[in-house]
Amino acid sequence: MLASVLYAVIVLSALVLLIQSIVSIQQTLYIWNDPDRMKASGVPDTFEQPELGFTVLLPARHEAAVIGETLRKLGAAHYPKDKVELMVICSEDDLETIAAAEAAKFEHKLINVTVLVFDGAPGKSKAMNLGLAAAKHPIVTIFDSEDDVSQDIFTIVNTIYLRRNVDVLQCGVQLMDYNSHWFSAHNVLEYFFWFKSRMHYYAKLQAVPLGGNTVFFRADDLKEVDGWDEVGLTEDADIGIRLSLKGKVFDVMYDPRHVTREEVPHTTKAFVKQRTRWNQGFLQILRKGDWLKLPRPEQKLLVGYVLTAPTYMALVIASAPLLVLLGATTKLPVAVSLFTFVPLFLAVVMLMVSLLGLHEFGKDQKIKVKPWSYAFLAITFIPYQVLLLVSSVRAMIREARGNRGWEKTVHLGGHRTAEHAQPVFAPVGIAASEVA
């Protein structure tokens, strides 16, 4: 009897893992399955004249080292200055960031920068809600304080809003410093696959847990859902789900020349803290249950899958070595023994996808990825899965204990080195500067 139960557990675990992996790979490769999808998701061939106004929310906390350069680059955007409001939002105790933002405003003669200071406890969602209330323009977007943003992003987004039926537009975000830490290439590839492919799949079903920045909203839509959740740790995914419930139309724009460039967390500890926050935020949204009100079953399944994937994968990663060990050392029926090697087979497939992804990332960003980088990616594949396991378990423990404090990620500007800085591309269609 005990043996039968063991056999059933092994087969069931392997089948669940197989189904989960097929779904994950399908989403990861979604954009490559049809060339028309990639073309439709890119930059328009021509641009409309500037018409829409944009308020850029820049919630900042202890970001004196990077906020000045971010403002300088945003201030150089190819779009009329009177149609772009740059709003740095800080709590009153963050004197260094406030001073750095004011200094950048003066040094670079940025007439469209506002530094909004609020009292009380700091908080990203709180800052964004205050910025939303003060926004002057009908389109609101968020950038992080270390972001390198395409100078043409406002022209591109203006064109898409004028030509398409869209309420929420998610644009691409890409980590750049793929060789800065032992885990960085894996982290870079997660962003690469998420924004280049997975997001398009979510938009197809109109159930979109949004990314944290380079998302464009209609201000009235944000006010309709009372802005961002000031309690949750993943306010971006949460507001995407709530806007999906309201029937808002989502679209995605990804072009490697115009992604917002960011940096990988600067230490392993910082990565674990960041990933813990994301995983815990997903658990909070899962428990809150708004996603269960989505009208279509496939939407509920998709969002439920996204929210539970980190926790589920932690269990899979923890149990996979045990299954392989059982298959190699225990006398099992042949059919059952074959199932124990499913995790190993899937790990090889996932590694192959990652290696191909690193090649595609280098091609997209015009970076020559050296052979040793591929070898190192393979060597660190399993250790990275362990890192994800630690982050997910830590998130479950924190949530169970009711510990929901924000663990901030420090930004040092690693993506702004000469090797990882924004490459120079030839213009596409009508140059954005021609309509500025």
Please tell me what the overall shape is: globular
Largest β sheet strand count, sense and barrel closure: 7 strands, mixed
Structural class: alpha/beta
Please state the CA-atom Rg, rounded to the nearest Å: 22 Å
Q: What fraction, in percent, of the residue positions are helical?
A: 40-55%
**Which parts are unreliable, with pLDDT below 50 for 5 consecutive residues or more?**
423-436
How would you state the average pLDDT, rounded?
Answer: 89
- Give me the number of helical elements: 15
Strand element count:
9
What share of the residues does DSSP label as strand, in percent? 5-15%
- Widest β-sheet, arrangement of strands: 3-2-1-4-7-5-8
CA(first)-CA(last) distance: 75 Å
Order of helices and strands: HHEHEHEHEHEEHEHHEEHHHHHH
List keywords for this structure.
436 residues; alpha/beta; 15 helices; disordered C terminus
Explained architecture:
With 436 residues, this protein is α/β, with parallel strands linked by helices. The protein has a domain at 13-42 and 164-429. The chain has 15 helices and 9 strands. It has helices at 2-28, 35-40, 67-75, 95-107, 124-134, 153-163, 184-205, 219-224, 235-245, 268-288, 297-329, 334-339, 342-365, 371-379, 381-401; strands at residues 54-59, 84-91, 113-118, 139-142, 168-171, 173-175, 215-218, 250-253, 260-262. Strands 3-2-1-4-7-5-8 form a 7-stranded mixed β-sheet, with helices on both faces. The chain has a two-stranded parallel sheet with strand order 6-9. Helix 4 (95-107) links the parallel strand 2 and strand 3 (113-118). The longest helix is centred in the last third of the chain and has 33 residues, at 297-329. The radius of gyration is 22 Å and the shape is globular. The N and C termini lie far apart (75 Å). Mean pLDDT is 89; it is low at 423-436.
